[in-house]
Amino acid sequence: MKAVVFDLDNTLFDHTESAAAAVRSWLPELGGTASDALVAQWFVIEERNFNQWLNGVVTHQGQRRGRLRDFLPLLGHPVPELDEDLDQLYTGYLRHYEASWAAYPDARPALEVARSNGLEVGVLTNGSTTQQNAKLAAIGLADLVDVVCTSESLGVSKPDPQAYLQTCSALGVEPADTVMIGDNLELDVLAARKAGLTAHHLDRAAGITLLDLVRSRS
């Protein structure tokens, strides 16, 4: 192997915990009370609207507005009619989300092992270029990553084969010489394999760590 490509959210970056903490601390500002049920609904709404953006149905800002239109009624909170008012309201969530950003404890050690073994290191993520790069910088991993490819910068998103092939090209390696590691079995493993990469599933629930995968595959 000459390169390793990591997914970002819920692989290197703990999106689930960061977002859950953000919702819990943001809800009182909206007059709501945090509960497990509301946090769970936030993630359902997030996935639905985020996929609308990935499929080209709405803009990135549009999917944020969609989240609020779906979520605010659950709190009994009025939904602003104007987009700019929705945008202003969403900044409250973003403030809490960004304050909660954190890497998994095994993320930096895994990247350091990969680099020490002479591998090129890439990140392939379905997300906004500005935000995903900001995450890597904030959680202290940007210095260990050679290439960051986002669905926004590539013009395609996982599981499109071109997402993986363009990332390999950016790293200067062939797909056959590249391993992809991520938490999503379909997007980070099965689709990557179809594109010609080796790929391995980061199943944290089964006790697998990034360090285990990097050490065994490097």
Keywords for this entry:
218 residues; alpha/beta; Rossmann fold; 2 domains; 5-stranded parallel β-sheet; 54% helix; 11% strand
Low-confidence regions:
none
Radius of gyration: 18 Å
End-to-end Cα distance: 7 Å
What's the overall geometry? globular
Quickly give the structural class.
alpha/beta
- Nearest-integer average pLDDT: 95
Q: List the secondary-structure elements in sequence, H or E.
A: EHHHHHEHEHHEHEH
Strand element count: 5
Class of the largest domain, according to the CATH hierarchy?
Answer: Alpha Beta
Beta percentage is 5-15%
Outline:
The chain is α/β, with parallel strands linked by helices.
Descriptive account of the structure:
The longest helix is centred in the first third of the chain and has 19 residues, at 36-54. With 218 residues, the chain is an alpha/beta fold. It folds into two domains: 3-14 and 102-217, HAD superfamily/HAD-like (Rossmann fold, 3-Layer(aba) Sandwich), CATH 3.40.50; 15-99. The chain has a five-stranded parallel beta sheet with strand order 3-2-1-4-5, sandwiched between helices. The N and C termini lie close together (7 Å). It has ten helices and five strands, in the order βαααααβαβααβαβα. It has helices at 15-26, 36-54, 60-75, 83-99, 107-116, 129-138, 151-154, 161-171, 185-194, 210-217; strands at residues 3-6, 120-125, 147-150, 178-182, 198-201. α1 crosses α2 and α3 packs across α4. Keywords: Hydrolase, Magnesium. Its cofactor is Mg(2+). InterPro entries: HAD-like_hydrolase, HAD-like_sf, HAD-SF_hydro_IA, HAD_sf.
